[in-house]
């Protein structure tokens, strides 16, 4: 793997340091495009007042007026959501906001297998028959042209709230009563990278401005940000600008939980915010997978009930169900990924594709997105994983930074029954017999956009350190930049002067644990390589080996043997050194 040290402007570092920003923090901020003391203060200490006015979003005034009229007239309102973390939390946020303002709303979350993604005519027709006169979509709807026409025909007003990219370069949007999406043409909202729950929150924020005084509004907004933070981290949108405010304040709020479902879920994930504050990594790897498991393996409505229920026993029951579904998801994921790796390793043409498309019969559609992520991680190429059943193919794709995957699909729109997504994540459906053509077309398209150099694994290193520089004080300084995630990657440090102190260990057959010391020193630190057990054999690692490594700083909260520990990103072996 190629290591590249991030550049920085020394003048910017000096400017920030002169404003009492610690030098190491100043360098990290400069590398992240933070150039002034004012910007540094906003980055390090975001406040609720830093949120943009929701009325800067195109369509907001019209949406709020229609929603307030529905509340006043006690009309039936339906919230149409999605089955992932972003979609289900968006339903909870909007439903709760409507209720706080005196209204009531039912909701529909599609079943991933039976209905698939997006708004369906039959659901809208059924809602119309039940007397619904206002439908609000969350995390979906920006390409729901047919659904919008069906709603209009039935006399139902539709408000679309979504964050996905509109169709085509012209940015076409459905003919709805109002469309809230910062990415639609003509919308000058400053933060273009909101997740679906973030857009739903902006609608609630605007609603609260009309119904609550300033003190109560502030209290409610801080409460909502707990859920918005979970969605923002889970949906991997850039943690910059308003999203950073959401994540930072929301994670701080999660130190206490009044919601029984939230408490039960955190307990099931074996986290305790009283002992160690939750991080973005806790949300991404412990909380979000359990919430996503509902939509992947069963019914996503369980997530909404979990956050709506007031009975402690029922909340615990639902959280434990999600925990079990997540275990089932992990097993199914392992089975599919093993089959994918065997297929790719045995097919040179597939392995050398510029865009990998791999398909299988009866693969579970709920886990193919995760499988696509694993393929990208292993082969460092764009990848689409396709599940085929009864003549239909449903796929999910993930990409590398150099390749816009949605543009690639839009180059062959006639192949698909439907598709959508972002630059680096897409979903789609098409007849099974078209999969070979899809594979050929995407490979050909990718070869016009990518070079072999784009596939070379690269690691951005923020700074090179001497072993002695890795201290709890450095960890404390780095933690000022949390939360980490997309757009604010956790800092990576390179250490050149180290050796392995004791024989390496393999944990749970897949993780690598090393104890390292400075070359010629005695102070030791633990170095953990998650899913890096293969390094043990490929590098023939043993005690005494001189190594250089790239790592992230972490903290083990165990009361007996906790403290500073390092997370391995990459390792290179020098010559062996006698003990």
List keywords for this structure.
3 domains; inorganic pyrophosphatase (n-terminal core); exonuclease; hydrolase; 579 residues; globular; 20% strand; Single-stranded-DNA-specific exonuclease RecJ
Task: Provide an overview of this structure.
With 579 residues, the protein is an alpha/beta fold. The chain has three domains: 54-253, inorganic pyrophosphatase (n-terminal core) (Alpha-Beta Complex), CATH 3.90.1640.30; 346-455, Diaminopimelate Epimerase, Chain A, domain 1 (Roll); 460-576, OB fold (Dihydrolipoamide Acetyltransferase, E2P), CATH 2.40.50.460. 41% of the residues lie in helices and 20% in strands. Strands 3-2-4-5-6 form a five-stranded parallel sheet, with helices on both faces. Helix 5 links the parallel strand 2 and strand 3 (106-108). Helix 1 crosses helix 2, helix 8 runs antiparallel to helix 9 (214-234) and helix 14 crosses helix 16 (368-379). The longest helix is centred in the middle third of the chain and has 34 residues, at 312-345. It starts with a strand and ends with a strand. The relative contact order is 0.09.
